[in-house]
Amino acid sequence: MPFVIFVLHMLARYSGHLRPQSMQITRMMNSLTRVPSWIASNWKTSAVVVCAVGVAATCRWYLETDKARVQRAQRKREKELRALADKILAYGRTVHQCYQTGDVVVSEGDLAERLCERPDTVATALNVLLREQKVQRAPLSGYWKLNG
After folding, report:
1. Which residues pair with 146 in a beta bridge?
2. 3-state secondary structure string, the chain?
3. Is the distance from CB of 96 to CB of 135 less than 8 angstroms?
4. What gap in Å lies between CA 80 and CA 132, rounded to an integer?
5. pTM for the complete prediction?
6. From first to last of its 148 residues, what are the pLDDT tens digits of the chain?
7. Nearest residue to 90 (alpha-carbon basis) of 109, 114, 121
C-alpha cells in the first residue's frame, strides 16, 4: 500500500496537481494503513469485537431451527444443481463448436467423469435441464441430447 501512495504522490508531482479522485484514493489508502496500528494500540477492544462476532455466529448456528437448516440445505443443493446444469450446457456448447454438423449426445457416466461429479447428481441436473427443455432423452438409456 505505501508503494501505491508513493506512486500517486509522484504522479501528482509530475502533473502539478492531484485530481479529486486521486486524493480520495490517497485518503482511503492512508486510512487503511492506520487500521493495523489501531488494532495494535486497541487490542483489548479488537479482542472483544472478535469474540462478540464469534459468539453471535455461534448463537445463530445453535438457535437455527431444523426447518431453517433443511431450507438452507435445500437452497444450497438447488444452487449447486443449477451450477452443474450450467456446466453441462457450457460443455455442450463447446462440443458443438468443435463439431458443428451433428447433435451433441452425452452419457451420464461420461459427463460425471468429465465434470468430477457423481453420476446420480449429473442425472438430477440433466432432469432439471429436461424440465427447462434444454435437453432431450436419447433413445439409448443413460444418454442425453443437448439442444442447440
Report:
1. 104, 135
2. CHHHHHHHHHHHHHHCCCCHHHHHHHHHHHHHHHHHHHHHHCHHHHHHHHHHHHHHHHHHHHHCCHHHHHHHHHHHHHHHHHHHHHHHHHHHHHHHHHCCCCCEEEEHHHHHHHHCCCHHHHHHHHHHHHHCCCEEECCCCCEEEECC
3. no
4. 17
5. 0.59
6. 556 566 556 655 555 554 555 666 666 666 666 666 766 677 777 777 888 888 888 888 788 788 888 898 999 999 999 999 999 999 999 988 888 888 889 999 999 999 999 999 999 999 999 999 999 999 999 899 988 6
7. 114
Count Cα neighbours of 133 within 13 Å in the Cβ-side half-sphere. 0
Tell me the three cell numbers of residue 60: 445463530
Task: Give me 77's grid cell.
Answer: 443443493
The cell numbers describing 94, all together, are 463447446
Q: How far apart are CA 103 and CA 83, in angstroms?
A: 23
| Helices 119-131 and 66-98, packing angle to 10 deg | 80
